[in-house]
Specification:
By secondary structure, this protein is of the alpha+beta class. It has 6 helices and 5 strands, in the order E-E-E-H-E-H-H-H-H-E-H. The radius of gyration is 24 Å and the shape is elongated.
């Protein structure tokens, strides 16, 4: 077993679980100083042997594992609020007029233009169509294998991000 932050070996018979930045992870002694050490989870008193689920089939099918293909391939551009405002003003429309054209409240348009609200995909597509602008951009998948550098070749948080020590 390896530390989920730095990749150092952690004893399997006595792993250290620490809560760091809101996530509970198995870490080495050195990395446990970055958070608070957690108690081991209680062991179940008994294990149910019956494998049949009492949930309906529809519920079971909804709880499926998601693959990388389920991740969004488009992302909202960084300066979307500026682009929406610029395009609306170029068409000489008021916020009220844009709101009527895309069937949204003026307050929603105002919050989008000031950057206080991030529109969902449906609203973004309505804005793109009405204003004839591009707000969604293609996202390239990052190959996380390029970050692997631990001795066992496994991916750890420490491989991907830099740790800021206090």
């Amino acid at each position: 077993m390896e530390c989920e932050i730095c990749g150092k070996p952690v004893p399997e018979n006595n792993p250290i679980r620490a809560k760091i930045e809101g996530s509970v992870m198995v870490v080495c002694k050195e990395c446990s100083k970055l958070g608070t050490i957690q108690k081991a989870p209680p062991k179940p008193k008994y294990v149910k042997q019956n494998n049949k689920s009492k949930r309906p089939a529809a519920t079971r099918s909804r709880n499926r594992n998601y693959s990388r293909n389920d991740e969004p391939s488009e992302e909202l551009i960084e300066d979307f609020s500026f682009e929406v405002r610029k395009a609306r003003e170029a068409k000489d429309w008021s916020r009220e007029e844009l709101g009527k054209r895309i069937n949204e409240r003026v307050s929603v348009i105002s919050r989008i233009e000031t950057g206080k609200m991030t529109p969902d995909t449906k609203l973004t597509k309505k804005l793109e169509k009405a204003l004839n602008i591009k707000l969604l951009e293609k996202v390239d998948n990052i190959d996380l294998n390029q970050f692997i550098s631990s001795s066992s070749g496994e991916r750890t948080l420490g491989n991907v991000m830099k740790i800021k020590r206090k």
